[in-house]
Amino acid sequence: MRINKFLAQCGIASRRACDGLIADGKVRVNGRPAEPGMDVGEGDRIEVAGRPVAIKKNEYYLLHKPKGYLCTVSDDKGRKTVMDILGSGVGRVYPVGRLDYDSEGLLILTTDGELAQHLTHPSNEVPKTYLVKVEGRLTEADLNPIRSGIEIEGGYVTKKCRAHIVETNRDYTKVELVLREGKNREIRKMFAAIGREVSLLKRTKVGELTLRGLDRGSFRKLTPAEVAYLKSL
């Protein structure tokens, strides 16, 4: 097995980040500095920054994040994080991507750095589906700038996406949006660019993986089939 893949499966970091550790001389194999691209096996002793590492069985969870929680392992201001939902019975998993404090919905947490990199890297364009609620009535034509790519705060032009109205009346409109990128607060900025403020933002799918049967604030382990599916995206 290639050394960077081995380290990723140990939960050290993504393969790319592990390549950086190797280049910095922080990885040793059988007492000698590791070389980029080298193969390692069961009989090899691998150390990172002087500490021995070994492949651990990765953990994978699906969590229905409520509003009012940060997608981080800890917070220096004492605010609630998704780790407070998981509790002490779960290992040291990490959120894959982010949902901001005021957003809710599907969140994957894992020890598998390689899968996390795969799901979040822009080049893989993994589709993520959101339900967005804004005040007032929107028409399908109002969504065309968002569909075709719109300049948002900071001068960035978003990629094309799918969007359609699922419910509308004089008070509010609900839109289903499918993105293949994930800039910070991107959806809120997209709707701000057409003069609408988002009052609810919920991630409902990653690929075809859904929240079905999972209440807000609850979580479950992913099945082996679901993990294999996410790796295939």
Distance between the termini: 23 Å
Class by SSE composition: alpha+beta
Helix content range: 10-25%
Which regions are unreliable across 5 or more consecutive residues at pLDDT < 50?
Answer: none
Q: Largest sheet, if any?
A: 9 strands, mixed
Backbone shape? elongated
Average predicted local confidence, pLDDT: 94
| CA gyration radius, whole angstroms | 20 Å
Q: Beta fraction of the residues?
A: 25-35%
Number of strands: 13
Order of helices and strands: HHEEEEEHEEHEHEEHEEEH
Would you kindly provide a written description of the structure presented here, covering whatever features stand out?
The chain has seven helices and 13 strands. It has helices at 3-9, 15-23, 82-86, 113-120, 144-148, 186-192, 224-232, and strands spanning 27-29, 32-33, 46-48, 51-52, 60-65, 94-95, 104-110, 128-135, 162-168, 172-179, 198-206, 209-210, 219-221. Strands 5, 6, 7, 8, 9, 10, 11, 12 and 13 form a nine-stranded mixed β-sheet that branches. A four-stranded antiparallel β-sheet has the order 2-1-3-4.
Q: Main traits of this protein?
A:
7 helices; 21% helix; elongated; 233 residues; nine-stranded mixed β-sheet
Task: Explain the layout of strands and helices.
Blueprint: H1 3-9, H2 15-23, E1 27-29, E2 32-33, E3 46-48, E4 51-52, E5 60-65, H3 82-86, E6 94-95, E7 104-110, H4 113-120, E8 128-135, H5 144-148, E9 162-168, E10 172-179, H6 186-192, E11 198-206, E12 209-210, E13 219-221, H7 224-232
Parallel strand pairs: 7-11
Antiparallel strand pairs: 1-2, 1-3, 3-4, 5-7, 5-13, 6-7, 8-10, 8-11, 9-10, 11-12
Helix pairs in contact: 1-2
